[in-house]
Amino acid sequence: MLLAREVLKSELIYFEDFFADSLKSHIPLLQGMMGYILKNKGKQIRPLFALLSSKLGGTVNEKSYVAALVVELLHTASLIHDDVVDESMVRRGDFSVNALWRSKPAVLGGDILSLNALLVTLTSNDHKILEIYTGAIGQIIEGEILQLRKSLRLNLDEKVYFEIITAKTAAFFAAACAAGASSTFDDEVLIQKMYSFGEKVGIAFQIKDDLLDYSLSDIGKPRGHDIQDKKITLPLIYTLNHCSPGLKRKIVKIIKRGKDDDSIGYIVEEVIKAGGIQYAQEKMFKYRDEALELLYEFPDSQSRKALEELVRYTTDRTY
């Protein structure tokens, strides 16, 4: 992400202050929580996509910063809510907000972030950005419900998997790129093209997350965490659809039974042997390349080069 941060060097300084200001609260409990969130913020990939998408069409402006801020606030809120729902005590290798403040304050903290995001769009009087992000929120909620229903029944179907990740993960990437582009592009066709670009990046990003669950490296959560949480992932779907009936029954039984490090390790090894990792990688690169094809339709520039670097980072990262 070196080129992306270099291209946005001055813009990121302003954005960091903008983000910090949006987390301020006069309520001590919330201020402590927001300070912790600021200290433990992630790589802020989605704001980078929003700002670079806006720079692709012209000069970054106040609406561009709003597009970047809103997606970071909404994404952070969704992570907090996810940790509450999943009863997760760890986030990015550190304690989650849920672990430190417990579920009720954590939920309210996530709600405040979501509210602040919507207030920012109203204050900026940009109905296009508001429309884009409210649409993304609706998609994400629908994706969560679909995942919950299918995970409980262990109905592991590839078509459903892509419906879920398009709604849950790709929606924010698509919205970030479209909202950023809407601040500098006048042509709705180009804004929609950036939406499609972001959606494909988001799908590739999620498949990479699936693959990292089978990695031996430290990624801030235990190996096989998704399997333990009964989450539908592409390597597992492929394995269950291509293994013997007996092995399929055994894997499903282990997943239903719950946490067991040895059993989870067994599933990981069977997924690797079945070719689930290779298949997921091929799908990931397919969506990455489709995203790049859309990006190459725009004129060559430093912003386009930075976006290309960022796309490749989403699939090449090791955590």
What this model shows, in words?
This protein has 319 residues and is mostly helical. It has one domain: Farnesyl Diphosphate Synthase, CATH 1.10.600. It contains 16 helices and two strands. Strands 1-2 form a two-stranded antiparallel sheet. Strand 1 and strand 2 form a beta hairpin. It is globular. 43% of the residues are buried.
List how many beta strands DSSP finds.
2
CATH architecture annotation: Orthogonal Bundle
Derived from helix and strand composition plus strand pairing, the structural class reads mainly alpha
CATH classification, class level:
Mainly Alpha
Number of H/I helices: 16
Compute the number of structural domains.
1
Q: What is the first-to-last residue Cα distance? A: 14 Å
Radius of gyration: 20 Å
- CATH fold-level topology: Farnesyl Diphosphate Synthase
Order of helices and strands: HHHHHEEHHHHHHHHHHH
User: What is the overall pLDDT average?
Assistant: 91
| Multimeric state | single chain
Summarize the biggest pleated sheet.
Answer: 2 strands, antiparallel
Strand content: under 5%
Give the helix level as a range of percent: over 70%
CATH homologous superfamily placement: Farnesyl Diphosphate Synthase
Poorly predicted runs are none
Name the overall outline: globular
| Biggest β-sheet: strands ordered side by side in the sheet | 1-2
